[in-house]
Amino acid sequence: MFAASKFTPTPRKLKREKTTVSTSSDSEMEPVRVYCRLRPIAENAEVESCVKLISPQELCLMCESKGMRKEVCYKFRHVFTAYATQKEVFDHVAYPVLSDLLQGKNGLLFTYGITGSGKTYTLTGEQNNPGIMPRCIDTIFNSIGDLQAPKFVIKSDKMNGFEVQSEEDAMQDRMAEVRSKSRTPRSNRKLNAEKNHYSNDGTKIPLLNETTLYAVFVSYVEIYNNNVYDLLDELNGRTLQNKILREDSQKNMYVNGVVEVEVKSAEEAFELFNAGQKRKRMGWTILNAESSRSHSIFNIRVVQLEQISWNDKGKPVIPEKNLLTIGQLNLVDLAGSERTNRTQNTGTRLKEASSINNSLMTLRTCMTILRENQQAKSNKMVPYRDSRLTYLFKNYFEGDGSIQMIVCVNPSVNDFEENLHVMKFAELSQDVKIMKSEPRTLVKKTITKNFTPARVKGNRFTILPEIPICKFDTNNMDEMGSYIDKVLEILKQREAKSKSLDKEITKSTDDFRKRLVEINQENVLSKNEIRSLKQIVNKQRQKTNNLEIKIRDFEVTNGELVGKQEELQNVIRSLHNVIDEKDLRLNQNILEKEKTKQKIALVSEKMSQEFDANLKKQRDHLHAVNRAKEIQLRKVREILNSEVVIPSSESSSKVESVVPQTPRSQMLDNQSRRNVVYSTPRRRRSKSVGEVWLEHNSVKPVPLGTVMQPSMKKRKSVTKLTKATDITNPKQSKYCLLAQEQDTDGEVETKLYKADIVSTCGGGAQVIFNDVERLRQESPTS
Ligand SMILES: Nc1ncnc2c1ncn2[C@@H]1O[C@H](COP(=O)(O)OP(=O)(O)OP(=O)(O)O)[C@@H](O)[C@H]1O
């Protein structure tokens, strides 16, 4: 049991003043501490690294594209290679911040980088390889050890502050908690407990003050689609509710109504973290199977109750007036920036990505303007309110604590372009200087809910010394005199007490009035906030209405388009049918053609065979006829030879005498040697009456006037064979071609090419030349 001591401290009250960054001197400022951590390239990914390490503080990003080599170098406070352990990162980055935290200073630590670069790994890590968060929790509890305030003695006032309550009240709260815990199913507790082990390496921070009690509080929120959700909220079947951000009486930003739990061990803290982690919005993307879709903020607040004394039993004595120092550490796992063309996100993922990118963009803008303000000593407005992320951490940028950033980098060459943007932002952030923060100690009175009056008499109670009752005895005046003195003394005491009570009442009234004024101010702020929220809600409603109208319009258009699409599909279907039919017919035609071709080939083969056979027959026949004619001719020649006897000396005169004196022979005589006369052709000239000749003359024949002209009683004269029917006319059986040409001496020679026209079995005709008569004119003088 605690007893309220009479100890009245002289508080080290530090008033928090808002100083703009640009007006403070350099010694009061410190830059944002920026570290870089490289993650190993995944083993199965066959990609090159685009990072070259120059020194423990410098690295270069390199890339070669289209024959051009690009190399950009950056300097950081420290660069952790892919081989750096989680402990190294913790020792370098988080340990100093934790040391500040246990002195009551604030710190903000966030991981920044593109998706899949190792932000969650750095901050949370794995069960056997814990990251910064579990190591922080372990280190805090390792350090404070037994110096923990009994649970619920320090209590959140629900307005971002704390109050100290009496041990009796704390005990009642503890009992209530035990009762509510006993109602939680055992299976659930066991399930949660199984996951709460991160390996603890026993890291400690030496504490300066052994007369201080510590209480650790944690809360866990996420910013998803620019809304704040409490991941530790008791849901009881509800969905997570959007929380609003508020400013407390000290102008610090906080999440209104956030569940802040006092934890007494690291395991308890991990249990809460894991419970929140299950609610945190994670999702699958092409670039990271477990991608954070929100910014998550794990807040650790360490409240110190200073200058405690200890009673005989070794228990702390809580004074009436307390000195509270509050330090807080925000561990922020930012969602990764991502390019939609790489993640190929659509729908919800796309909306998330655009919200993530917007909030990161606002963070960049705030940093840029802060830097500009500091460098150009200007006073541009920093747009913290544009995003919940920057609005929540506005105090840090204005000098309420140190800021450290770990830039996580996946060195894959595929991430080169995006890493460039990240590095640019990181480099810019290093130039921003933040006011150094100092611990703030507040004086708080111990609150007692169960007020019990000192003494109760009948129906009234009094806190003044009572006047003793005395019997009036006139015989004993001495006793009466001492009694009166006593009463006078008591009355004096009562007067003094009354005065002190008056003073106390006046002070209490003043305090109460002050508190009322504060409450009133907060009330006014809340009203303003509610008003602005209402305006936002109205605007949103208006937007929703507009969107609904648009959606309806779209639905109508969509309906029409669907109708049109159906019509077009019907047309397409019928066209497809037509095409199918045509294809079928085409195929049939091709088949038929193929068949016909085959038939024609068969018939033509047959015909050519028949034709060959006929031809052979005719040739044989003609040969036979020729042979018979030759035999006849031979016989005629023999007869002629036997008739004509030519004496060797008068041969020329004998010829003349043997040749009958026909007009033709006379002509031959007359024309002397101009014409050569052959007996055989003359005889070969057929005189058959029935024969029809096809006389093929030259266009302008030279008139012959000779005996050589064949006798063609029935004839058809042509100068040109233009048509096949000129030959194939079945009535014609003979052919004679008259050709005249001049020899080199200019003498005319006439040739008669004679032939038989033989019909062929194919319906054509064959011209078989069998005789040539030549008639040549010569000048006797030549
Ligand atoms: N330093 C490291 N050593 C080993 N593995 C790592 C390291 N950093 C990251 N990884 C692995 O890379 C993968 C992606 O890491 P992580 O989920 O932390 O990325 P992230 O930056 O948080 O991504 P997102 O922004 O999409 O949430 C994980 O499987 C993680 O285990």
The CATH class of the largest domain: Alpha Beta
Strand content: 15-25%
Q: Assign the structural class, choosing from mainly alpha, mainly beta, alpha/beta, alpha+beta, or little secondary structure.
A: alpha+beta
Shape: rod-shaped
Rg over alpha carbons: 63 Å
Provide the CATH superfamily of the largest domain.
Kinesin motor domain
Distance between the termini: 170 Å
Helix content: 40-55%
Structural features, described:
The chain is α+β, with helices and mostly antiparallel strands and 782 residues long. The protein folds into three domains: 24-447, Kinesin motor domain (Kinesin, 3-Layer(aba) Sandwich), CATH 3.40.850.10; 466-641; 658-776, Kinesin-like protein Kif23, Arf6-interacting domain (Immunoglobulin-like, Sandwich), CATH 2.60.40. It has 16 helices and 33 strands. Strands 2, 6, 7, 10, 11, 12, 13, 14, 17, 20, 23, 24 and 26 form a 13-stranded mixed beta sheet that branches. It has a five-stranded mixed beta sheet with strand order 30-29-31-32-33. The protein has a three-stranded antiparallel beta sheet with strand order 3-4-5, with helices on one face. Helix 1 crosses helix 3. The longest helix is centred in the C-terminal third of the chain and has 167 residues, at 477-643. The termini are far apart. The structure holds adenosine-5'-triphosphate. InterPro entries: Kif23_Arf-bd (IPR032384), Kif23_Arf-bd_sf (IPR038105), Kinesin-like_fam (IPR027640), Kinesin_motor_CS (IPR019821), Kinesin_motor_dom (IPR001752), Kinesin_motor_dom_sf (IPR036961), P-loop_NTPase (IPR027417).
